[in-house]
Amino acid sequence: MLTLATDIEALARFGRALADPIRCRILLKLQEAPGYPSDFADALGISRTRLSNHLACLRDCGLVVAVPDGRRTRYELADPRLGHALGDLRSAVLAVENDKTCVDAETEGCC
Fold this sequence. Notes:
Blueprint: H1 5-18, H2 21-32, H3 37-44, H4 48-60, E1 64-69, E2 72-77, H5 80-96
Antiparallel strand pairs: 1-2
Helix pairs in contact: 2-5, 3-4
């Protein structure tokens, strides 16, 4: 049972990261393996500027880290347990009901 503000804040950071489909895709890529921004931008079909903004959000949330690698910067999950958490969360949500869509809480109200 969550009672500490830090627990709630940690889950809110994770939720913020997962609230955007591009950030979800980045996290799933990082779950597979660390990588470089240029490779992610190409794989996801987005501009490097847009990717950079999403990576900054994920860094600010404490979910990814930037690791200097010569002249490049490699990104990876901040902790291997995040990869397990992503897999567990995805499996649990799909196991409950995989045909549901969540409406936008600000425009339609939430289920």
